[in-house]
């Protein structure tokens, strides 16, 4: 890992926080998915670097950050906050999400709470989340309302499960067409899900 001015400190010993910084191409991948009428919920907003940019595109941005010190860094910048940017210092796992959200943003490569956030967003009527929590590096836009099939129905190809697990299902090579290879199958009940169910 290369340390830079973007590197954030570990908060309360939580290893997830040391993997929070991102570069401009990552932010650009998020910004390209936004529409002027969107109301964004930025989960784990950090120092508001991305939130400020999103506020220049969308109708409103709610930014949630659990670490008051990091949030303070974003608030202390010379530029005033955009009028459509609302900052909240709190725990996104326990707080209620505003009901007007149209799209969530979760940039946290090693987040282990994708399902919790996705369910909370879906429950308030939000349809999409932009995240790198499933594939860890690449940014994707997940349709929260998309139909999901059982894991065992996928014969070959890449999959992303509602639990946050991803992978590749091996199968007969004749089924791996260019079209099939380009699809990420949205599934439920993958081996990761079953493993956690068996432990509980």
What are the SSEs and their pairings?
Blueprint: H1 24-31, E1 39-43, H2 49-55, E2 60-65, H3 68-75, E3 85-89, E4 103-106, H4 114-123, E5 128-131, E6 140-143, E7 149-150, E8 157-161, E9 166-169, H5 178-181, E10 184-188, H6 191-199
Parallel strand pairs: 1-2, 1-4, 2-3, 4-5, 7-10, 8-10
Antiparallel strand pairs: 5-6, 8-9
What's the CATH class of the largest domain, please?
Alpha Beta
Strand content: 15-25%
The dominant shape is: elongated
The figure for the number of domains is: 2
- Provide the CATH superfamily of the largest domain: Vaccinia Virus protein VP39
- Strand tally is 10
CATH architectural group of the largest domain:
3-Layer(aba) Sandwich
How does this model look, in words?
- There is one protein chain.
- With 200 residues, this protein is of the alpha/beta class.
- It folds into 2 domains: 15-143, Vaccinia Virus protein VP39 (Rossmann fold), CATH 3.40.50.150; 149-199, no CATH class.
- Helices cover 23% and strands 22% of the residues.
- The strands form 2 sheets. A 6-stranded mixed beta sheet has the order 3-2-1-4-5-6, sandwiched between helices. A 4-stranded mixed beta sheet has the order 7-10-8-9, with no helix packed on it.
- Helix 3 (68-75) links the parallel strand 2 and strand 3.
- It starts with 23 loop residues before the first helix and ends with a helix.
């Amino acid at each position: 890992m290369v340390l830079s001015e973007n590197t954030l400190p570990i908060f309360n010993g939580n290893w997830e926080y040391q993997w929070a910084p991102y570069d401009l191409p990552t932010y650009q991948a998020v910004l390209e998915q936004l529409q002027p009428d969107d109301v964004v919920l930025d989960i784990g907003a950090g120092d508001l670097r991305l939130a400020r940019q999103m506020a220049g595109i969308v109708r409103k941005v709610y930014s949630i950050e659990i670490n008051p010190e990091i949030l303070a860094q974003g608030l202390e910048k010379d530029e005033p906050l955009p009028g459509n940017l609302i900052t909240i210092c709190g725990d996104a796992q326990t707080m209620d999400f505003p009901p007007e959200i149209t799209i969530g943003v979760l940039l946290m490569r090693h987040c282990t709470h994708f399902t919790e956030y996705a369910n909370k967003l879906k429950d308030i009527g939000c349809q999409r989340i932009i995240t790198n929590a499933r594939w860890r590096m690449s940014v994707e836009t997940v349709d929260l309302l998309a139909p999901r099939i059982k894991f065992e129905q996928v014969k070959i190809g890449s999959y992303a499960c509602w639990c946050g697990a991803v992978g590749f299902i091996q199968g007969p090579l004749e089924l791996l067409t260019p079209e099939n290879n380009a699809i990420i199958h949205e599934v439920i009940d993958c081996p990761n899900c079953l493993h956690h169910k068996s432990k509980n």
